[in-house]
Amino acid sequence: KARASYEQKLKNVQHSVSKKLLEIALAKKSNLIASADVTTTQELLALAEKVGPHIVALKTHIDIISDFEYEKTIIPLKELSAKHQFLLMEDRKFADIGNTQELQFKSGVFKITDWADFVTSQVIGGFESLDCFNNVGVVAIVGMSSKGTLTTSSYREEALKITLSHPNVIGGVSQSSIPEEILLFTPGVNLADSGDGKGQQYNTPEYVFKTLHSDFIIVGRGIYKSNNPEEAAISYKNEGWNAYIKSLKIIA
Ligand code: UP6
Fold it and tell me: What is the value of pTM for the model shown?
């Protein structure tokens, strides 16, 4: 069976964040999410400015920014996201009871609820632990990319039940296929390396679109560590888009 196209998915998805992601993908001909795993506000904003036009979303780990200040970090980041038309994905990977996740989401210095368009969350806390994310989209961690991960097939099966049934969830992070009614986000993508010596395992864009029917690739070091992050973003964007177009034509 051929994979569903972004146009087909756009007709079927309900969540406003899913719709936005698919609309941006079609408008920019991009399925690239850049992971901004940098540690200063200046690097974060410089990267967002360079790669912004080529991505559907910028993924942050906001708690690794050493000089975080809401006014100096988030306000300009929000401006860049509006200027270059990309969404903000905070990769917080919440993994607690609902009440604690709610506090982590709404309080502290980061106030994720005020600026993120969508967030990642583990589903280990159960269905109701995701209720607090009702003003954003949630990407559930179904399977991880690292060697020796405990997200076995039986875990993934249970995780998928929550992912498919919770109204706040727009999709999953996984290294295996998931049902096409939700969006599949795949990190662990790099054209040059097969691993990082710290357990990360990489695949190519070709593999993730063809074999997994992924919707969005997430690329970190392949872009921000490159000598020219803008050029790197353009090549991942083109590789990803071409791999997606090819995968539409495969009737398996
Ligand atoms: N990430 C993974 N694998 C997962 C889930 N999330 O790599 O299963 C995240 C990492 C990092 C990014 O936290 O921010 O995706 C991958 O970065 P890289 O391309 O530099 O390896």
Answer: 0.98
